[in-house]
Design brief:
single chain, about 120 residues, mainly beta, 7-stranded mixed beta sheet, 11 strands, about 0% helix
């Protein structure tokens, strides 16, 4: 059974940090590109960060570049999103996504940035 389980979301003040984790099972994790998306209320889901299967290449949305870092541990079958200097506009549900021949999604974790 394929599972992607996100954790690490919560409430944080502007300027704070959070680290999201997404633990995978049920598929060959090391072959998949991994992505973090987010969706704010009333907005479309947007791609935040990507990392290739080996972890060599990463890409980021302009809005998070320099503040967020995506990484992966293929031995632990986990992908991370380190989020620093958080802003209120980063408030959203964050989803991890695994893509290769199949496309898998987690259930999402809420991140709220507010004072």
């Amino acid at each position: 059974q394929v599972q992607l389980v996100e954790s690490g979301g919560g409430l944080v003040q502007p300027g704070g940090s959070l680290r999201l984790s997404c633990a995978a099972s049920g598929f060959t994790f090391s072959r998949y590109m991994l992505n973090w998306y987010r969706q704010a209320p009333g907005k479309e889901r947007e791609l935040v960060a990507t990392i290739d299967s080996a972890g060599d290449t990463t890409n980021y949305a302009e809005s998070v570049k320099g503040r967020f870092t995506i990484s992966r541990d293929n031995a632990k079958k986990t992908v991370y999103l380190q989020m620093n200097s958080l802003k209120p506009e980063d408030t959203a549900v964050y989803y991890c996504n695994a893509r290769w021949y199949s496309n898998y999604w987690g259930q999402g974790t809420q991140v709220t940035v507010s004072s």
